[in-house]
């Protein structure tokens, strides 16, 4: 009974997070500032209500599945075999802070290779095609997965809990950061500031253009947070920088 109660409460919280964050970005970019952000739009094609409804349906379903995996680990005897801890002094504040980017690095590696696997021709049309129906994604596409892909995506937290010590604060922060970055990747608009292009961060971090190219071209740019796996494996879209610069030059004309 406690497991079901926790599943319900955590699912409601995760769905609320999805609706609030995705919805806020959508309202800002697609409604309130649609005209002023026109130069930041990555693809010109109009998004239909049918597409948005599909994205929301699959995202809410995925939310329940991914939440179930987390609750199953944290609310059953399985938690005893994890490295979850609740007293900050057990590992220090420094580790508490460091565990978040370390978790994101591990997640990016996991995501890259899972993503490459899902693009295998025997898996793509049966599983990953659900996500790629959004070839011009909106923020609502962030969780729009086939059931099996949702399971694969949801396994990252148990994986992290079994290999690095994580405090609940680090877990919640990781999940929040991960989702916001995911929404940005599916935003359909490039909102990165002008200075980002000339900073060292441009060579490390993904952008909305980066992931949008993956959706429109179906291949390349498989990373979630960072560019390095795509660059190492030669899977980065060769037109990425050109496309990014074109949009940013429209946004910030000289």
From TrEMBL:
GO biological process, one term: lipid biosynthetic process
GO terms for MF: iron ion binding; oxidoreductase activity
Domain Fatty acid hydroxylase, residue spans: 102-235
Cellular location(s): Membrane
Record keyword Transmembrane helix present: yes
Chain segments annotated as transmembrane: 15-33, 54-73, 93-113, 143-163, 169-187
Alphabetical UniProt keywords: Membrane, Transmembrane, Transmembrane helix
A Gene Ontology term for the protein's cellular component: membrane
Cited PANTHER family: STEROL DESATURASE
Identification of the protein by name: Fatty acid hydroxylase superfamily
């Amino acid at each position: 009974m406690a497991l079901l109660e926790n599943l319900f409460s955590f699912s409601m919280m995760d769905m609320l997070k999805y609706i609030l964050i995705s919805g806020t970005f959508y309202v800002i970019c697609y409604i309130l500032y649609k005209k002023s952000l026109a130069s930041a739009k990555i693809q010109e094609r109009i998004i239909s209500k049918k597409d948005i409804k599909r994205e929301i349906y699959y995202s809410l379903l995925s939310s329940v599945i991914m939440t179930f995996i987390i609750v199953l680990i944290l609310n059953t005897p399985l938690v005893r075999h994890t490295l979850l801890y609740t007293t900050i002094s057990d590992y220090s504040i420094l580790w508490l802070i460091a565990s978040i980017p370390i978790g994101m690095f591990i997640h990016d590696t996991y995501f890259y290779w899972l993503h490459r696997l899902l693009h295998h021709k025997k898996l793509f049309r049966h599983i990953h095609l659900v996500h790629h129906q959004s070839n011009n994604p909106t923020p609502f596409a962030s969780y729009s997965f086939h059931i099996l892909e949702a399971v694969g995506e949801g396994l990252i937290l148990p994986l992290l809990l079994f290999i690095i010590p994580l405090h609940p604060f680090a877990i919640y922060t990781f999940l929040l950061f991960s989702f916001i970055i995911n929404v940005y990747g599916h935003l359909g608009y490039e909102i990165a500031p002008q200075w980002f292009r000339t900073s060292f961060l441009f060579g490390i971090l993904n952008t909305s253009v980066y992931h949008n190219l993956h959706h429109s071209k179906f291949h390349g740019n498989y990373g979630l947070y960072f560019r390095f796996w795509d660059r190492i494996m030669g899977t980065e879209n060769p037109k990425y920088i050109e496309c990014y610069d074109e949009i940013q030059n429209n946004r910030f004309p000289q």
